């Protein structure tokens, strides 16, 4: 939903937090050297320019694969595929700038 993940990485550099859409970045299998050379891209916002990276946007996203894959969101394990995510509008209210 947002651009940044742990440590300031921009895995979804085009994400707009309040547009009601998920932003998903898929990084395909890479060799160790390619991973090391590509790490900078996670921090400078150019990760989507890599040929082994795909980006998707939508109100719901289903991830299914063969073989099943481990899923992690914002550093938290969600189990394995298949898994479906849906946007639930107006479910989180944030109040800022008021005294309690």
Please explain how this structure is put together.
The protein has 100 residues and is of the alpha+beta class. The chain has one domain: Tumour Suppressor Smad4 (Sandwich). 13% of the residues lie in helices and 29% in strands. It is built from 1 helix and 6 strands. This is YegS/DAGK C-terminal domain-containing protein. Pfam families: YegS_C. It comes from marine sediment metagenome.
Give the overall silhouette: globular
Number of strands: 6
Determine the fraction of residues in helical runs and give it as a percent range: 10-25%
CATH class: Mainly Beta
Arrangement of strands in the largest sheet: 1-2
Number of helical elements: 1
Strand portion: 25-35%
Q: How widely separated are the two ends?
A: 28 Å
CATH fold node name: Tumour Suppressor Smad4
- What series of H and E elements makes up the topology? EHEEEEE
Biggest β-sheet strands, sense, barrel: 2 strands, antiparallel
The domain tally reads: 1
Low-confidence stretches: none
> Can you name the CATH architecture?
Sandwich
Mean pLDDT metric: 87
Cα-based radius of gyration, to the nearest Å: 16 Å
InterPro entries: Lipid_Phosphate_FormReg (IPR050187), NAD/diacylglycerol_kinase_sf (IPR016064), YegS/DAGK_C (IPR045540)
Protein name: YegS/DAGK C-terminal domain-containing protein
Pfam family, one: YegS_C
Organism: marine sediment metagenome
């Amino acid at each position: 939903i947002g651009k940044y993940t742990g440590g300031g990485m921009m895995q979804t550099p085009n994400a707009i937090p309040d547009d009601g859409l998920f932003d998903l970045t898929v990084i395909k299998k890479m060799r160790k050297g390619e991973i090391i050379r590509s790490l900078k891209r996670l921090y400078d916002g150019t990760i989507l320019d890599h040929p082994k990276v795909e980006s998707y946007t939508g109100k719901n996203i289903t991830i299914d694969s063969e073989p099943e894959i481990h899923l992690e969101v914002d550093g938290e394990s969600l189990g394995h595929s298949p898994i479906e995510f849906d946007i639930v509008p107006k479910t989180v209210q944030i109040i800022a700038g008021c005294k309690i």
